[in-house]
């Protein structure tokens, strides 16, 4: 097959070039339909339980994603509570009201939130915390004191030290977070205020959306810059401009065809798929550099392009095929992960690998024949004599020396490798799995700075929600209605129209409970009782207007049914609310939980003001009726729907709003663990189930799925590549040996991650697939060429000497080109790109070094076993 493909490329070079351009053009026909998706939530499938529940919670409690705006004044003795700063905050708030996409009714700012005040014995009144900007310092300090006296605002809107104030800007959808933050930044520039005021904007929606915007800017800069460095390095090695253009053409066409196909097939460009060009560039260039390197070394031997290309392609076709197959398999295995964007990433990188291989074996020979005439290669390449090359090339001399000491001191190198592996294993044991979208930016980025400053002053800018509710099950709903059933059975005793009504309601109750679905929600019992109340209203038409006794009995039945409905309002129960309040106090002791906001805070504050603001009355009242009165009073505020952010109208589901000082996955996991332990040790007075929602928690879930998925993919790919190697080499020993540089590279990379304290995050997880695909490449080239040389020379000693010349130079040039070529990614402003650049360079350096040192040392020790078949072929040919 290789010979036929080579002959086609050599005999029809112009046709090959035309076909390559045609395929590229066709793949780009729908590039204008590109759809961009930078939402990490889409790392989870739309049917994922945690994602479905998250959106159910947002709908049930009317929650919105928040942009957090903070103002800090560390200089003024009154902090931000001075007339100038509060005047600027007022103007900023008015400006934010005019931003499209802001949920105005839920905007939290001093001028939009209520202060709860007493209005005489047993009554409260509400007024905006800051109805107008203060004119004097006394007025500003009064606003501060009232805010700090309100548990709903203290630590959320206002810092305890009065040095900072926050605005919470709810937005209709996360995809507008960056745009909203930019418009707020423009308003800040014109708001005025105190000269010492420092404004900050942060929040997970802002970080995630801003990363998406900057990601494409970085892609437009980093990928071409990396390509330029690769191009310059190849020019340095091969000194022929027209020749080194070929690998760049292969890389660019590979990226264009792959991304064009991805877009054309209707896939969105996600955070993951946006990095496909970065991953494909080195893969597409590697084989091309091998061809050019060997062409560079062999041309003067033949001084004929076609003859040289036929020899080069004969030598390299099989190893290039092997490397492409193994790399393709490694990335294709990502299709087995539970993360949709990762599956798309893996499949299209695998597709790109196949495209790169086809373009390499066809386009590079065709390009050389069409664009590089024979006369321009007169002084091209090294001389046929390796000795002459060794005399003039420091690289060649170094490789020859390395090859000599490697085989001469094989056991020493193996011992050193074992020591490196031992240290690497220790480093792997120290790896911490963690991620935080805010940390995708450099430490000096405004979002990172805002995150640090505001989480120092406030309860936290990271949000999570814990929903407590009765068990969601058919049996639980029916059990909750047992009291209603008993009441109706008692009311149906006796004669008369009202007992008959109660009997009908009892029968209707059986019908309603029988129709409840198996997954009946916690609101089902209240819904059933409300349906019974409507039925009772219809039955009232059958009563005679003159029957006073019947109407009196009817009123008693109606009131009793209403009492049954109220009894189902779990979270009006004082005992349960006290348990929740105690739970909140316990959570406040956790270092990451800056604050929780819940229904008990509302009830306690209103109850305090109903009793003239006395401090001892800041508590949960003793009866459900008193709790209901507090909640009813609270609904007299400017926004009566605020309470529904904390409890559903049936009072059977409660939402605890967590403010966390860190968005790190491991910190969120620590909070979850604390909650689980508390609930086990301190069960609520009634049976409740709990479940998490919120962006911070969603990030934990998808990151865990990614890590597990990538680990499974890596292990599966490793086994798959091993099988492929054994099959391709037709030898178990050679298959195992080919995995050694790969194994050492993987161990070293992840050991290094653990040793330097780098978190195992999204880009690191994805790099595992690249490690496997790239590390096996050099080993295949080395082993395949070594076996050919042993079959030709009949001696490993002679073969190892030859391997230290042209083959070693090809591997080394490749490693240097890719390693140094992608180091410019370290200059990127986004941490994931820096991570890819650093570890891609490390992967190439370690795998190249491992191939040229570890493999020869192992072959030296086990040459009799490894070359038994190859020696037999040599002897047979002789």
Strand content: 5-15%
Count of individual helical segments: 32
Radius of gyration: 36 Å
Shape, please? elongated
Explain this structure.
With 878 residues, this protein is α+β, with helices and mostly antiparallel strands. The chain is 64% helix and 6% strand. It contains 32 helices and 9 strands. The strands form 3 sheets. The protein has a 4-stranded antiparallel beta sheet. Strand 2 and strand 3 (124-128) form a beta hairpin. Helix 9 packs antiparallel against helix 10 (305-332), helix 14 crosses helix 26 (732-756) and helix 14 (410-429) packs antiparallel against helix 30. The radius of gyration is 36 Å and the shape is elongated. The protein starts with a helix and ends with a helix. 50% of the residues are buried. Residues 383-391 have low confidence and may be disordered.
Write the topology of this structure.
Layout: H1 2-11, H2 13-27, H3 49-60, E1 65-72, H4 83-97, E2 114-118, E3 124-128, H5 137-148, E4 164-171, H6 177-191, E5 198-202, H7 204-238, H8 241-264, H9 276-302, H10 305-332, H11 340-371, H12 386-392, H13 394-408, H14 410-429, H15 446-457, E6 462-469, H16 474-480, H17 482-491, H18 497-514, H19 524-539, H20 548-567, H21 574-587, E7 593-597, H22 599-610, H23 624-634, E8 654-660, H24 665-681, E9 689-693, H25 695-729, H26 732-756, H27 762-793, H28 796-803, H29 806-821, H30 831-861, H31 863-866, H32 868-877
Antiparallel strand pairs: 1-4, 1-5, 2-3, 6-8, 6-9, 7-8
Helix pairs in contact: 1-10, 1-11, 2-8, 2-11, 4-6, 7-8, 7-9, 7-29, 8-9, 8-11, 9-10, 9-11, 9-29, 10-11, 10-25, 10-27, 12-13, 13-30, 14-26, 14-30, 17-18, 17-20, 18-19, 19-20, 22-23, 24-25, 25-26, 25-27, 26-27, 26-30, 27-28, 27-30, 27-32, 29-30
């Amino acid at each position: 097959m290789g010979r036929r493909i080579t002959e086609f490329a050599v005999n029809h070079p112009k046709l090959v070039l035309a076909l390559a351009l045609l395929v590229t053009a066709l793949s780009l026909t729908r590039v204008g339909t590109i759809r961009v998706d930078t939402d990490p939530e889409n790392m989870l499938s739309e049917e994922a339980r945690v994602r479905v529940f998250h959106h159910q919670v947002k709908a049930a409690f009317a929650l919105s994603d928040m942009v957090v705006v903070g103002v800090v004044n560390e200089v003024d003795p009154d902090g931000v509570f001075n007339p100038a700063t509060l005047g600027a905050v007022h103007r900023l708030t008015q400006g934010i009201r005019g931003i499209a996409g802001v949920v105005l009714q839920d905007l939290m700012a001093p001028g939009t939130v209520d202060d709860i005040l007493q209005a005489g014995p047993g009554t409260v009144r509400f007024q905006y915390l800051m109805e107008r900007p203060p004119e004097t310092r006394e007025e500003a300090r009064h606003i501060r004191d009232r805010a700090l006296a309100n548990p709903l605002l203290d630590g959320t809107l206002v810092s305890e030290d009065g040095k900072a104030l926050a605005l919470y800007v709810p937005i209709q959808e996360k995809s507008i977070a960056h745009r909203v933050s930019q418009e707020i930044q423009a308003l800040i520039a014109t708001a005025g205020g105190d000269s010492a005021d420092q404004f900050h904007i942060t929040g997970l929606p802002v970080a995630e959306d801003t990363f998406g915007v900057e990601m494409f800017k970085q892609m437009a800069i980093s990928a071409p810059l990396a390509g330029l460095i690769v191009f310059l390095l190849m020019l340095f090695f091969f000194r022929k401009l027209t020749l080194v253009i070929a690998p760049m053409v292969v890389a660019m066409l590979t990226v264009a065809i792959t991304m064009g196909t991805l877009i054309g097939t209707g896939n969105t460009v996600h955070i993951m798929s946006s990095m496909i060009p970065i991953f494909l560039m080195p893969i597409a260039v590697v084989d091309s550099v091998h061809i050019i390197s060997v062409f560079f070394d062999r041309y003067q031997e033949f001084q004929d392009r076609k003859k040289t290309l036929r020899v080069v392609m004969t030598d390299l076709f099989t190893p290039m095929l092997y490397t492409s197959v193994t790399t393709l398999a490694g990335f294709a295995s990502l299709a087995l992960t539970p993360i949709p964007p990762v599956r798309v990433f893996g499949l299209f990188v695998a597709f790109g690998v196949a495209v790169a291989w086809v373009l390499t074996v066809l386009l590079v020979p065709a390009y050389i024949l069409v664009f590089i005439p024979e006369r321009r290669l007169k002084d091209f390449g090294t001389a046929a004599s390796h000795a002459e090359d060794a005399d003039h090339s420091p690289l060649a001399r170094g490789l020859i020396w390395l090859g000599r000491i490697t085989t001469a001191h094989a056991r020493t190198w193996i011992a050193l490798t074992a020591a490196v592996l031992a240290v690497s294993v220790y480093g792997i044991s120290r790896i911490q799995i963690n991620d935080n979208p805010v940390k995708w930016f450099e430490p000096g980025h405004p979002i990172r700075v805002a995150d640090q400053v505001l989480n120092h002053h406030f309860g936290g800018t990271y949000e999570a929600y814990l929903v407590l509710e009765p068990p969601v099950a058919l049996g639980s709903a029916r059990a909750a209605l047992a009291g209603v059933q008993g009441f109706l059975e008692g009311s149906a005793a006796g004669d008369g129209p009202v007992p008959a009504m109660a009997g009908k309601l009892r029968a209707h109750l059986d019908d309603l409970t029988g129709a409840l679905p198996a997954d009946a929600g916690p609101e089902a019992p209240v819904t059933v009782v409300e349906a019974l109340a409507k039925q009772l209203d219809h039955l009232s038409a059958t009563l005679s207007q003159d029957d006073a006794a019947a109407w009196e009995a009817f009123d008693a039945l109606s009131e009793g049914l209403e009492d049954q409905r109220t009894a189902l309002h779990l979270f009006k129960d004082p005992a349960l609310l006290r348990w929740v309040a105690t739970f909140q106090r316990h959570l406040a002791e956790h270092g990451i939980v800056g604050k929780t906001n819940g229904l008990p805070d509302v009830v306690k504050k209103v109850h305090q003001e109903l009793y003239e603001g006395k401090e001892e009355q800041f508590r949960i009242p003793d009866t459900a009726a008193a709790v209901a009165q507090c909640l009813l009073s609270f609904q007299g505020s400017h926004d009566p729907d605020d309470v529904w952010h904390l409890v559903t109208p049936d009072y059977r589901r409660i939402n605890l709003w967590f403010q966390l000082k860190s968005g790190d996955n491991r910190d969120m996991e620590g909070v979850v663990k604390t909650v689980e332990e508390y609930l086990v040790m301190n069960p609520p007075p009634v049976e409740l189930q709990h479940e998490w929602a919120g962006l911070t928690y969603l990030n934990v879930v998808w990151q865990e799925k990614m890590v597990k998925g990538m680990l499974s993919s890596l292990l599966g790919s490793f086994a798959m590549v091993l099988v492929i190697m054994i099959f391709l080499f037709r030898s178990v020993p050679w298959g195992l040996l080919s995995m050694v540089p790969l194994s050492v590279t993987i161990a070293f990379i992840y050991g290094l991650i653990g040793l330097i304290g780098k978190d195992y995050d999204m880009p690191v997880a994805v790099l595992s697939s690249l490690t496997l695909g790239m590390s096996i490449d050099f080993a295949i080239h080395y082993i395949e060429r070594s076996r050919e040389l042993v079959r030709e020379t009949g001696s490993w000693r002679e073969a190892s000497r030859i391997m230290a010349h042209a083959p070693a130079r090809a591997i080394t040039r490749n490693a240097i080109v890719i390693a140094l070529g992608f180091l410019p990614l370290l200059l990127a402003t986004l941490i994931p790109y820096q991570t890819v650049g650093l570890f891609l360079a490390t992967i190439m350096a370690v795998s190249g070094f491992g191939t040229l040192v570890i493999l020869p040392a192992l072959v030296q020790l086990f040459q009799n076993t490894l070359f038994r078949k190859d020696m037999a072929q040599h002897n047979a040919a002789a």
